[in-house]
Amino acid sequence: MYPTKYHKPASIEDAIAALGGGDDAMVLAGGQTLLATMKQHLASPSDLVDIRAIEGLSGIAVRGGSLTIGAATTHAEVAGSGDVREQCAALAALASGIGDPAVRNMGTIGGSIANNDPAADYPAALLALGATIITNKREIAADDFFTGLFTTALDEGEIIVAVNVSAPTKAAYAKFDQPASRFALVGVFVANGASGVRVAVTGAGEDGVFRHAGLEAALSADWSGSAVDGVDVAADGLMSDMHAGADYRANLIKVMAKRAVSASA
Predict the structure, then answer these.
(1) Cα 75 to the chain's mean position, in Å?
(2) SS3 36
């Protein structure tokens, strides 16, 4: 790896100052993506700003029928939380299927969505649930946050503080994973809540996570697995790689959508 300066700020203000003090400073939370890319010489930050010690950036709270999850909360903590299981069991189940135990005990929800890997699980959940991403500067709707492949609406020097999720009436996530990495070859999160039916797909889109209007319309009319059968899922705009072609991914989207609806509660 390249030389880098390590910072462990005690406050958001100190973290922002550290980020602004480096030529190419980057936030470090769980490090499950950043450290791997550094080892491969795909990233060479001048400074690493470790936010894990900042008070208030981890933990889970229920307020008025919604969940607030701190950005530094690990996948294992989300998976094991009774509050998450009570308010949105699908989110806890999703977190339990991320990577392996080592990844789940180090990786964080904030780090996952900030990186916005096109095969990550959390972006599909937050998009389908109509979540709000809270930063040190503002609140951003999930529809506006995920802007493309590995890109988000975050500005320079902006840090995710928490995510807020309203409890859905029904929700579930179904993933066809790549067995070596457990990343989603295709993952579909379905949710029916106050903002209606929302369906988000990860692992398939050339531009990353996306909502599927056809599936949303069909499930709004009939929340059942059979409603998915009549939906046309085109291969246009879907990824083709060594693991699967666009046509295969298009078929998997329907299969995963049906499984998710059938599993929803």
Answers:
(1) 11
(2) helix
Could you give the CA distance from residue 16 to residue 143 in angstroms, rounded to a whole number? Answer: 25
Residues 11 and 101 in one domain: no
User: Which among 206, 208, 170, 174 has a CA at the least distance from the CA of 191?
Assistant: 170
Give the tens place of pLDDT for each residue, 185-233.
Answer: 999 999 999 999 999 999 999 999 999 999 999 999 999 999 999 999 9
CATH code where residue 217 lies:
3.30.465.10
Match 């990860």 to its residue by tokens. Answer: 202
State if pTM tops 0.85: yes
Question: Are 219 and 137 in the same domain?
Answer: yes
- Taking alpha carbons only, the member of 122, 263, 252 closest to residue 183 is 122
C-alpha to C-alpha distance for 65 and 51, rounded to whole angstroms? 28
φ/ψ of 46, rounded to 5, equals -70, -30
- Residue pointed to by tokens 């790549």: 178
Does 55 fall in a domain? no
